[in-house]
Amino acid sequence: MKVVRAEVLGFCFGVRRAVEEAKKALCENTSTVYSLGPLIHNESVLEKLGKSGLKIINEENINQIKNESIVIIRAHGVEPSVINQLKNKNCKIIDATCPRVKANQKMVQKYSSNNNHVILTGDMNHGEVKGIAGYAGENFHLIQNPEEAKRLELKDYAEKEIILLSQTTFSGTEFEEIETILKKKYPSLTVKNTICPATNERQQALIDLCKNVNGILVIGGKSSANTKRLFQIARDNCKNAALIQNKDDIPSIFYTLETVGLTAGASTPDDIIEEVENTLLLSYNKKL
Fold first, then answer.
1. Which of 106, 113, 158, 157 is nearest to 131 (CA)?
2. Is the pLDDT score of 130 beyond 90?
3. Sign of the CA dihedral 253, 46, 132, 154?
4. E-assigned strand segments in 172-229
5. Is 149 exposed, middle or buried (0-12, 13-18, 19+ CB in 10 A)?
6. Phi, psi angle pair for 263, to nearest 5°
7. Cys-Cys link to 221, which of 6, 41, 207, 263 (CB 3.0-4.6 A)?
8. Residue 47 contacts by C-beta under 8 Å, 6 or more apart in sequence?
9. Residues noted as catalytic
10. Percent of the residues in the chain that have a pLDDT greater than 90, as a whole number
11. Is residue 34 within 8 Å of 69, Cβ to Cβ?
12. Would you call 242 helix, strand, or coil by DSSP?
């Protein structure tokens, strides 16, 4: 058996930074360290951080955080009202918002301040999108797919600037399709492709990998949006594809394939990728 890794996979810069900030805070403080929502979308990483003392608390339960507590803002970011609540509690805020997400927040705030139409492509249930929406004004429109783009109607579009941007982990292909639809309806549309380059590179690397393997294992948390997109790409481009969280989830058919490709979501750490690869190779060598 041959195991081939995608050229781009695993932890992205923003996620790695958030995890490092959490580890640092846990080492430097004896009091409880809170993560406002799951720090990243990977159950294994969260379990390890939890054993080290990190406590996850959802935004709706922010009132349970004691005054002057240490609170980490996860890579997805949060809306301004949440930051204000923490400041009112005199909490020590460790802002681990991904710099690219932070740039999106500022851009939405800037264009919304002039009462322009701001269109964001993304998943309405994603933490990043909810946070960005908190910086928007009345003329904010969330588009989740091309069908919604076709249904969008802006009555006063001739009088205002229209800006299109994206959740950083959105599908590049879908963004381009939505852009094409909206440009036909609104020729003056200003497009800001704010998808993180690492997201596009990860997806393209997977497409390239699918051409040279018999099966693809997508490693990552099942609640991770970017991991789910990778899995969809894998299914569309490879006969055998599976989404797994760790080595214990590897389907039996993959132990029979000649060449297995590996990719991983932006929240998947190096050690889990290595465990999956070693498990495949060790099983194959035992058969020889």
1. 106
2. yes
3. positive
4. 190-191, 215-219
5. buried
6. -135, 170
7. 41
8. none
9. 128
10. 79
11. yes
12. strand
What is d(CA 91, CA 85) in angstroms, rounded to the nearest whole number?
A: 9
- Asked if 261 contacts 215 with a C-beta cutoff of 8 angstroms, the reply is yes
Tell me the two tokens of residue 193.
């492709």
Type of residue numbered 143: I
What contacts 198, CB < 8 A, 6 or more positions away? 8, 12, 13, 266
| CA–CA gap between residue 18 and residue 37 (Å, rounded) | 13
Residues in CB range of 270: below 8 A, 6 or more apart: 10, 11
Closest listed residue to residue 70, CA positions, set 34, 39, 23: 34
The pLDDT tens digits of the residues spanning 61-76 come to 999 999 999 999 999 9
The average pLDDT across 29-53 equals 90
